[in-house]
Design brief:
Shape of chain A: globular
Structural class of chain A: alpha/beta
Radius of gyration of chain B: 29 Å
Oligomer: heterodimer
Radius of gyration of chain A: 21 Å
Number of strands of chain A: 14
InterPro entries (chain A): Bact_solute-bind_prot3, SBP_3_CS, Solute-binding_3/MltF_N
Protein name (chain A): Amino acid ABC transporter substrate-binding protein
Low-confidence stretches of chain B: 1-8
Mean pLDDT of chain A: 89
Domain Solute-binding protein family 3/N-terminal (chain A): 34-263
Number of helices of chain A: 15
Mean pLDDT of chain B: 87
Strand content of chain A: 15-25%
Pfam families (chain A): SBP_bac_3
Family (chain A): Belongs to the bacterial solute-binding protein 3 family.
Chain lengths: 338, 401
């Protein structure tokens, strides 16, 4: 099935005539009336369908924010679930308008894949999950272990580097989806499950007995996860980039989905510019001037998005940590909106 | 025909009488064929050129330079030396060899199993023929992918973990991580065994020739099979003991997380091999049955009337004729099995599609080149199998005198 997907994508690249790639993504999205957004095949907290089949999660909310900015309606998104191997070809071939799927921003991906990362929606790092029965307390004790891993990820490369650096051997068992890696880990096919730490927490909930496994303290890499778009369409690149910045800026200014209507009428010039009551930011981006207001009203600010999907009161229970605002000791920072 | 038609014109005295080229069917055909070639060539050129232009415009790297760049990821099973510093080109070889391994062993097992079941299907024993029928109908009618999942997730995932492995005499271990068997270690002086084996093979070749000639001359039959078996197996065994048993076994041992030493057969390989063999064997069994049934019963009766015993009737009369019917469809089953091995990616067996068209494609992003190489490789493997089977078919075909 995956093979057919890749072949189709390769054929799509081969047969799409140059004319089409000139057309602006924003115009296409507006004409179509909805956004096609690539997400994961199911990762709780980031992109996962709920029991009614509605997609939810931090990555999903980034898609919704872009839809709110571009179309004025956060619900007008068609989610395309992709596994790690399919994601870039799907974006390259134009099957999706943007990719928002816990994808690490690296130099190689930025330069050779024909895509651009628009920012960082979640600062992450790679970790290891082991069964408590194993009696291991550090990743340095994993010499000779069998490791379950998802195909086509930066994780595969970091793992190889880490074991080589520490003169340890390992056996990689590579699966196509994260669900399969969890199944393999649970059945005992491998001793260790490795992935980005946020994913490990998410995947741990999927275990029959989550308390039987633990995440080791070592973080072996930097994994800045963010949305990406095709290269060569700066207008669309700008809009996706600033949709995320708008959510962060809203948190800085204290705007939430609950108070944005009230604050809209305030005299604060920053808020006025933000909500579109003053200035022409929307026009510059090619959308309505109230684009940022729509993001906050319909999706919420970055803090709300984080807490709703992965925060302390969710099953994942992840602390803000690196993802707190810069003013609160984290890394989330947006350039000034002016 | 057309050269006949031209003749009267050649004799014509009027040079102007030569037809214009669009009135000459031969030239006209040539013209249209050239036109077609131009159109097809042009279409291919447009597609290739357009692809390159699109890739460049989208900032996607093209070309085959990536093959020499370091891969940086590990592979579970490799028949050749491989580590993370090797190139992407090396990952291609590793994947290809893994594909060939599972296809080669799969073809051998499926053929063996298929012939046994096919013959059992024709057995006069009601129970045996019904069991064969049930086997064929079950495995032929369930999609292969489901069968692979069945063997991998339902059967092999139910095995115990490394510490509670099933074992045979503390030398063969089976657990969820795979099958661990002792590996032979060849010490100094073990080359004499190899020499004995080669001598045995060569000697048995000459014995066969001599026995054939003797039968032609005197009509006496020599028990070639048993003598040859004795030569090929017996000589190395004698050499082994004379030279003081220079081959020892390395036993797998539980160290840390896993067994180390010996040979490890990973469960992904086992599941894929079993599923492919059993699925294809069901088709081969039907082919064998139809092949044997295609030989008229009169042939058997005629052979018996000549005084041939049952075994020789089968070997000299029935099977050579049945093979002619069996080989062509057998070829397509071999091709199917090889191509079906690409389903490996579903359970994480590191074959060509999983390693090269999977991880390598994703790390480099060069979908067009990698998919092209992968398709070309499968085409090449299929063509090679066809060439071999066609050669074999020609050898087995009826020699008309």
């Amino acid at each position: 099935m995956k093979k057919i997907g890749s072949v189709a994508a390769a054929a799509a690249v081969a047969l799409t005539f140059s004319v089409q790639s000139h057309s602006a993504t924003l115009d296409t999205v507006k004409e179509r009336g909805y956004l096609q957004c690539g997400v994961s095949t199911g990762l709780p907290g980031f992109s996962n369908p709920d029991d009614k089949g509605n997609w939810q999660g931090l990555d999903v909310d980034v898609c919704r924010a872009v839809a709110a900015a571009a179309l004025g309606d956060a619900s007008k998104v068609k989610y395309v679930p992709l596994n790690a191997k399919e994601r870039f070809t799907a974006l390259q071939s134009g099957e999706i308008d943007m990719l928002s799927r816990n994808t690490t921003w690296t130099l190689t991906r930025d330069t050779t894949l024909g895509l651009n990362f628009t920012g960082v929606s979640y600062y992450d790092g790679q970790g290891f999950m082991v069964s408590k029965k194993l009696g291991v307390s550090s990743a340095l004790e994993l010499d000779g272990a069998t490791v379950c891993i998802q195909a086509g990820t930066t994780t595969e490369l970091n793992l190889a580097d880490y074991f080589r650096q520490n003169n340890m051997t390992y056996q990689p068992v590579v699966f196509d989806t994260s669900d399969q890696t969890v199944q393999g880990f649970e059945a005992g096919r491998c001793d260790v499950l490795t992935s980005d730490q946020s994913q490990l927490y998410a995947l741990r909930i999927k275990l029959a007995d989550p308390s039987s496994a633990m995440v080791l303290p070592e973080v072996i890499s930097k994994e800045p996860l963010g949305p990406s778009v095709r290269q060569g369409d700066d207008q669309w690149f700008n809009l996706v980039k600033w949709s995320l910045f708008a959510a962060v800026t809203a948190e800085e200014m204290g705007l939430t989905s609950a108070n944005v209507d009230q604050m809209k009428n305030s005299d604060n010039p920053d808020v006025k510019r933000f909500t579109g009551a003053e200035g022409d930011f929307g026009k510059a981006l090619g959308v309505n001037n109230d684009w940022a207001y729509q993001i906050v009203k319909q999706v919420g600010n970055y803090g709300e998005i984080f807490e709703r999907n992965v925060g302390a009161n969710t099953p994942l229970g992840i602390a803000r940590g690196l993802n707190a605002l810069w003013s609160k000791g984290g890394l989330q920072y947006a350039p000034p909106m002016r | 025909m057309s050269s006949e038609a031209k003749k009267p014109q050649a004799h014509s005295t009027m040079p102007n009488n030569k037809p214009l080229f669009w009135n000459d069917p031969e030239k006209r055909a040539l013209f249209f064929q050239a036109l077609l070639i131009l159109a097809v060539g042009g279409a291919i050129w447009i597609i290739v050129d357009n692809t390159l232009a699109n890739l460049e415009q989208r900032g996607i790297t093209t070309g085959f330079d990536f093959l020499s760049k370091p891969a940086g990821f590990g592979i579970l099973q490799s028949l050749i030396e491989y580590n993370e510093q090797e190139s992407y080109g090396r990952t291609f070889i590793v994947g290809l060899l893994n594909t060939l391994l599972v296809s080669g062993i799969g073809i051998a097992l499926a053929t063996l199993l298929g012939f046994v079941i096919g013959v059992a299907r024709l057995s006069h024993n009601w129970l045996i023929s019904r069991l064969a029928l049930v086997y064929i109908e079950i495995f032929r009618n369930i999609p292969l992918l489901l069968q692979i999942f069945f063997w991998y997730f339902a059967v092999l995932r139910a095995l115990p973990n490394a510490k509670q492995s099933l074992s045979i005499g503390e030398s063969v271990f089976l657990n969820i991580r795979g099958l661990y068997i002792p590996s032979p270690v060849f010490e100094a002086g073990s080359s004499i065994i190899l020499i004995a084996l080669i001598t045995g093979v060569i000697a048995s070749f000459f014995v066969s020739r001599w026995a054939h000639k003797r039968q032609d001359d005197t009509g006496q039959i020599f028990p070639t099979t048993w003598v040859n078996l004795g030569l090929i197996v017996g000589l190395p065994v004698i050499a082994f003991f004379i030279s003081g048993s220079p081959v020892s076994l390395e036993y797998p041992e539980l160290k840390g997380f896993n067994f180390r030493g010996g040979i490890t057969v990973i469960p992904e390989f086992l599941a894929l091999l079993v599923a492919l063999s059993i699925y294809t064997a069901a088709f081969i069994a039907e082919i064998v049955r139809s092949g044997i049934q295609s030989v008229h019963h009169g042939q058997t009766e005629a052979a018996h009337a000549l005084g041939l015993p049952h075994g020789r009737t089968l070997k000299l009369v029935i099977i050579p004729q049945a093979m002619r019917v069996i080989i062509p469809p057998l070829t397509s089953q071999y091709l199917n099995l090889t191509k079906n091995s690409s389903l490996a990616t579903a359970i994480g067996y590191p074959d060509l599609v999983s390693v090269f068209a999977g991880t390598t494609l994703n790390q480099t992003g060069q979908a067009v080149e990698i998919i092209f190489i992968t398709m070309a490789v499968y085409l090449l493997i299929s063509l090679l199998i066809s060439v071999f089977m066609n050669w074999y078919n020609k050898r087995m075909s009826l020699v008309e005198r």
